[in-house]
Amino acid sequence: MKQDINAFFKENGYYLAKGLFSKKDIENLEHDFDKIVNQLQKSNTKIDATWKGAAIENIKSKDDIIIHTHNVQQYSSVWLKALLDYTFLNITSKILGENTVLHHSKLFQKANFDVTCEFGPVPYLPTLPFTNTPVSSQWEMNIFMKNLLTKTYKQWMLQ
Hints:
- There is one protein chain.
- The protein is built from six helices and two strands.
- The chain has helices at 5-12, 23-42, 54-59, 77-83, 86-96, 138-158, and strands at 66-70, 106-110.
- It has a two-stranded antiparallel sheet.
- It folds into two domains: 5-115, no CATH class; 117-159.
- By secondary structure, the protein is mainly α.
- Helices cover 46% and strands 6% of the residues.
């Protein structure tokens, strides 16, 4: 039976499309990822996206740094082709709908795996309809996503 991608995503908050890219495709994406990171590190651009604040200071390690940039497709034709891949777009349209515009792609590299989540304040938090009242606190959302990402990452690593 074919899995309903949208239903799975709505229930779990993610969808893992196994086999979407070949091993060679992944190697090329990783190579260009590293090339972009090296380019960013050599620039004078502010590239540390680590959240600041007392709560983060309590959980992060001293070497935490998150290297980031926006619009990764502007740095690499390999990443542009991946983002425009027909199969990738077909899967994303099942989650997001047919009239989807992919923009604001981001690259993040973290030196170690202490997850610092990027789930910002409203409007990124789930809200009640018509009121924009958050249905959870920022801190609860970060802890939930940290745990979910850690669990998911460990599952992927075991495959």
